[in-house]
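Sequence in, structure out. Go.
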Amino acid sequence: MRSILLLVFACATAATLNALEPVTAKAAGHPPTITGTNVETYRKIGETELKVWIFNPATKADKPLPCVVFFFGGGWSSGTPTQFEPQSRHLASRGMIAIVADYRVKSRQNALPSDCVSDAKACVRWVRANAARLGIDPERIAVGGGSAGGHLAAAVATVPGLDSAKDDKAVSCLPNALVLYNPGTVMAPFPGLELKGFGAGLNKAKFGCEPTEISPIHHVKKGLPPTIIFHGKADTTVPYATVEKFTEVMKAAGNRCELVGFEGQPHGFFNKAKYPETLAATDAFFVSLGYLPKK
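Output:
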């Protein structure tokens, strides 16, 4: 019922959001230049400095604000933090602090997916450890992402290992909410599922760890953060059945998990054909959590 209401809200507001068409990532070098942001380094590995770009609301707040951290997609192999620039600008305009984060990938640092998860966990810990300085409420940190970035967001919330030995485990990397766009949630065989597409055929050598170690669905438990998932029903890269099963397992564990499916939509639809609808529903989800004011 909640998902239906979100879709109704999205359709009603889509017309007003058409002016906020997603910004196409420039074919420039890496890391990108994103205007109007504060840029900081959250982790340094060798010569690689992993950065975050911080979008702040125009009006300075007199109290700590909720925050969302976005991880880009690209199969753990490529991609750019600018993927979630349009969503970040919208959410900052509504009163949240939004952050897009870089992480190591195969094409740039010869990284494995396990390295990507390690970076994502370190990033969320950095945000929470620096919350007071950044004006962020450490108890209202949402994490989101698309495709491989959606996998990282889900893994930060579920996977118990893959931390760096240098990480301060006293600082939690557990998000307070998850916003996932066509995410990879099943990386290893799971009862009732035929593993296809994204994650299928991957093994320890390709992941950098055992497949079950990096598979969010295998680590679902009670007490995980409220979650919303946007997914195309025609997605062959990350089959819809995998997120249906993830949602089922999350709910069975007593967690809030809403799946909003879009008929006929393929992988990556959320920044294309259905950008206004998914943006409106993302906004509505944060309103439901009290992170944003009602419109």
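Check: The beta strands are 38-45, 48-55, 65-71, 97-101, 136-146, 177-181, 227-232, 257-262. The CA atoms of residues 45 and 217 lie 29 Å apart.
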